[in-house]
Design goal:
The protein is α/β, with parallel strands linked by helices. Helices cover 41% and strands 19% of the residues. Strand 1, helix 1 and strand 2 form a beta-alpha-beta unit. The N terminus is likely disordered.
Amino acid sequence: MKDRDNQKIIVLINSLASGGAERVLTTLLNNLVNKYDCYLIFIENDIKYQLDKRIKILHLGENTNNSGIVKFIRLPIVAFKLSKIIKKYKFTRILSLLSRSNYVNIISNIFTKHKILISEHSLPSLQYGCSNLQSKMNIYLIKCLYNFSDEIITVSKYGKYDLEVNFKINSKIQTIYNPIDISFIQKEKNKKLEIDRTKFTFVTIGRLDEGKNQKLLIDAIKSLNANLWIIGDGVLRKELQDYINKLNLNDKVFLFGLQLNPFVYLAKADCFVLASNYESLGMVLIEALACRLPIISTDCLSGPREILAPKSDIHFKLKDKIELAEYGVLTPIKNVAKLRESMSLMIDDKKLRNNYKEKSIQRANYFNIEKIIKQYEDIICVK
């Protein structure tokens, strides 16, 4: 498009409560609003991230406390609510992020015709790989609905593969990596943080749930002369705190909860570590690179390998060894011994740490908003 001025960008998301996708959207819109008329539609009115005041906010008014079953039953109702907004504002193209918003975006086209753009920020085959009812419902909805979208954005190359091969999605799919605003991160990380740090410190960021597997980190650090900061909140917070208490690790493992400025913690730590069982991309890895941290990550599907070892085969996964990759250390998933070995190596090998620090910002620049935003503009901007 030659003239992008006065064009509209319309985005639908569940909420801005927390999470990587929510932070990505905030970064995107806060930059796009300098050039475009931006609308953000929330299914639930829960905003934790700071949005530019020029962004126009619309709400569908759903209850944040609804159960998964209720949310499933109400999908057509929420889609009808969205269709009324589409008609009122004469929207012709909507980008949605996250599964539930994607379902609503697609179903709303029953009531009004618009171009459907969806962004998948998970690996559905792993995210919904359990045998419970919620997973089965999501797998069913993805298989039934996603082929009705006009275009799909995945945040990793393996995410594209997952949809095409495991879900037989034949809509147009392209991969656009999540962007970061490096200048913003540099400003935020330099803010004051009153915290004592007496020994080598690892830091991790993420929801406290089974998929992020913070328990593996707690087990790995038990015998190491180091501290662990855990940033994030979630359903396992009490269970993790009880586990820390049980192991008498209160003097070395700290749960700091959800932090709107996690970068200031990254700046004060010595190494970032991720123990996830699966990731769509692993936004926190890119943010840690931007804070010039050396990184250890499980070699989970799919993002860590794409970020830390970009020249390698995305289908290759470690089984029983660690890998000193180009931009960080990779370890097998769910392997406490190899994770501990990697953490011990990072503590003891100052040369290795410094090597990764020097390379970190080089890799982070690949994901800078100024580069990624152009790819989004070609998809989501309309006159």
